[in-house]
Hints:
CATH architecture of the largest domain: 3-Layer(aba) Sandwich
Distance between the termini: 44 Å
CATH superfamily of the largest domain: NIF3 (NGG1p interacting factor 3)-like
Strand content: 15-25%
Radius of gyration: 19 Å
Strand order of the largest sheet: 5-6-8-9-10-7
CATH topology of the largest domain: Udp-n-acetylmuramoylalanyl-d-glutamate--2,6- Diaminopimelate Ligase, Chain: A, domain 1
Largest sheet: 6 strands, mixed
Number of domains: 2
CATH class of the largest domain: Alpha Beta
Order of helices and strands: HEEHEHEHHEEHEEHEHHEHHE
Number of strands: 11
Structural class: alpha/beta
Number of helices: 11
Amino acid sequence: xxxxxxxxxxxxxxxxxxxxxxxxxxxxxxxxxxxxxxxxxxxxxxxxxxxxxxxxxxxxxxxxxxxxxxxxxxxxxxxxxxxxxxxxxxxxxxxxxxxxxxxxxxxxxxxxxxxxxxxxxxxxxxxxxxxxxxxxxxxxxxxxxxxxxxxxxxxxxxxxxxxxxxxxxxxxxxxxxxxxxxxxxxxxxxxxxxxxxxxxxxxxxxxxxxxxxxxxxxxxxxxxxxxxxxxxxxxxxxxxxxxxxxxxxxxxx
Length: 253
């Protein structure tokens, strides 16, 4: 299988028309679209650390969630960090494929992965763009118990919680930056809304709005999609070696 065939097969499962108009995903870098694909590195972000790891370990393709190139580049200059990564990748013959908002929306993608990881049942899309997910727990629980579940599922030790003193049962969520979906979660009847980033000005109004709010971190709420990407590649071509690698995280110390 070559790079172009791989991209087309993944796009059959994660269609381009699901991407938001403002987004830039798809083929980020492709020195040779007919190059054979034997080794794929799956990651959330294409950091320079990830690029160097891919070069050192002989990968043919990096498959990421966040786009390597988001804003237009006016020049390829190694003084610019995006350009520097592109130069390294092209010299090494490594392609980068990124699947961003289309992977947020697609069935089985970012938000379905997160919902299943948290143990939600009857998961359905919500929001004007059907990007969010809403579902319910097997039984009603307290905010403290649900927060413990979230930390365990995501492998984190801290959350930011704004408690409206609702029992937790119907949960809406958006991985990553989901501050714009709180009202839609309320309209869908959620008692609790979880996202990677919500923001202080929204969180402080949780009790007044009548919805529990949980901020669990952009990285932590989206990284589970890497397993979805890995499984998808293996189904497309089980001969391809796939490795998942985490990139650096902003952290509290």
